[in-house]
Records
---
Amino acid sequence: DADVTQTPRNRITKTGKRIMLECSQTKGHDRMYWYRQDPGLGLRLIYYSFDVKDINKGEISDGYSVSRQAQAKFSLSLESAIPNQTALYFCATSDAAGTRNTGELFFGEGSRLTVL
Amino acid sequence: QKEVEQDPGPLSVPEGAIVSLNCTYSNSAFQYFMWYRQYSRKGPELLMYTYSSGNKEDGRFTAQVDKSSKYISLFIRDSQPSDSATYLCAIYRAGNTGKLIFGQGTTLQVKP
């Protein structure tokens, strides 16, 4: 089983619909992140959480919200989806402690969202 | 100005070629420099990371950092079709608010 699991892997929806992307991890990491990937723009940070009670906005948080239900679960919501939110979304985790705190991220396999 | 700029692709090279991928960054406070590799339909995975200026080798891959010029490079020797992927540079500043910042990514195709 993957260490970082995202569901759904693919989703097609219509403008105005509410969408939730879910992420769960078995790595035991405290830090979790949601990124969006678009061609030519790389990975852009939407939200991040350093522990269950900590939620922070990233560079492109408008139109998104998150919930950290447990150390292992971090979900991303689009309250009213619009076509320019069509993208590939990645959840990631990192370990703040340890001997090699380089900020290395461990990614899920992505959720492809299409908003019509 | 973006904090990290990556040379645009895509790159297409014949098998066996030497590949050079490059990024520049703007903030001298960044401490860690990474290269992630992303295969099609997969999440990025860490390929190499470096902390100081200079070269770091791992098999056919060499990561190079020049802090004075704020320039990082990844070299791939004897490129193989299995190296075909998107390569993303990333930089990091440790600390409680440290976050990884990614370049735009360069898609590489190695043709047999």
Note: The mean pLDDT of chain A is 91.
---
Amino acid sequence: SAVISQKPSRDICQRGTSLTIQCQVDSQVTMMFWYRQQPGQSLTLIATANQGSEATYESGFVIDKFPISRPNLTFSTLTVSNMSPEDSSIYLCSADGGASGIYEQYFGPGTRLTVT
Amino acid sequence: SQQGEEDPQALSIQEGENATMNCSYKTSINNLQWYRQNSGRGLVHLILIRSNEREKHSGRLRVTLDTSKKSSSLLITASRAADTASYFCATDGGNYGQNFVFGPGTRLSVLP
């Protein structure tokens, strides 16, 4: 299994600013994913990040608002741009099983974002 | 939409009792996975069941899959207070490596 860490674990930001969340995996993985989880809700996929190509965004999410980087097989960042209170959520990154197979997803601990 | 849907949305039981959660989905799948999420934390992968499997066990967990009914169940036996968490099912889209779609989750409370 892959061990995933995220930074920061939480942050309180002012509206109009941007926050970049980092996701580090302890092994090389093919696919990484970014999810948003609003309070009391399930997870919604924002985008899929593959190394060497642009991220693929789900309906309702755009690159200008959520730019993503994937510079190598163990790291990715998600930026939440021009934040508003509606962006207050937990943001989670996940990765596929890497060498153990692509069928299981492993999750980071999440970043709890509050926008005031 | 292939979104999984769990029921019940919330479940409260006494320690030692069994807890059963159900998940339904809409399209064909290659596998279905169950996750646990403790309050405000990341998701922990519990168990994966492939579309050609009908039942799988892991410790106190038992998962069943009925592809004809497009449904799965998660049974936690002899529950403990530490099992208190939200439980989500996630389905792939029938294509390996495709992103997973999560259901709304079941909030389980195990009372001591």
Note: The interface with chain B takes residues 1, 4, 6, 30-31, 33, 41-45, 48, 58, 90, 92, 94, 96, 102-110, 112 of chain A (CB under 8 Å).
